[in-house]
Automatic annotation (TrEMBL):
Protein name: 3-dehydroquinate dehydratase
The species this protein was found in: Maritimibacter fusiformis
Family matches, as InterPro entries: DHquinase_II, DHquinase_II_CS, DHquinase_II_sf
Binding residues annotated for substrate, in chain numbering: 73, 79, 86, 100-101, 110
Membership in a protein family: Belongs to the type-II 3-dehydroquinase family.
Function: Catalyzes a trans-dehydration via an enolate intermediate.
Membrane-spanning ranges: none
Gene3D superfamilies in the record: Dehydroquinase, class II
Subunit structure: Homododecamer.
Length: 143
């Protein structure tokens, strides 16, 4: 089974960007961790990142035919994007939402995620380990 792991804006800077909030690991480190966890469940991953909302929408549409599940950290688009929510609503497989930081402990504008209305599960505040936990959960959901 192939899992799409989608990452929103500024996550290309993971490891360099506000490390006190997001930690020192890069998105490549996260990908390596997810490959390892996925192997235990027979899952392969496609790790994608974009700073463009429409590109993320297109990947979610593509996932309809190519991915057994989606793990998504929509980053700032969590709080603004109906388009990403709509794309996920048109996707049939499991969707797990990950936030590296605990969005509920941060500014009020981060407390609400439009994406959570579609997510089968949400992880926030576990650092990049949240991705590994989401991979484990994806393994259970798809077995
Ligand atoms: C984030 C939290 C968002 O509020 C923020 O805009 C991000 C990253 C997280 O992983 O903690 O870019 O999704």
């Amino acid at each position: 089974n192939l899992i799409y792991i989608l990452n929103g804006p500024n996550l290309n800077l993971l490891g360099k960007r506000e490390p006190e909030i997001y930690g020192a690991d890069t998105l490549e480190d996260v990908a390596a961790m997810c490959v390892e966890v996925g192997a235990g469940f027979g899952l392969e991953i496609r790790m994608l990142q974009s700073n463009h909302e429409g590109e993320i929408v297109t990947w979610i549409q593509e996932a309809r035919n190519h991915a057994a599940g989606i793990i998504i950290n929509p980053a700032a688009y969590s709080h603004t994007s109906i388009a990403i929510l709509d794309a996920l609503n048109a996707y049939d497989g499991p969707v797990l939402e990950v936030h590296i930081s605990n969005i509920h402990r941060r500014e009020a504008f981060r407390h609400h995620s439009h994406i959570s209305a579609r997510a089968d599960g949400v992880i926030a505040g576990f650092g990049v380990e949240g991705y590994a936990l989401a991979m484990r959960r994806m393994g259970s959901l798809l077995s």
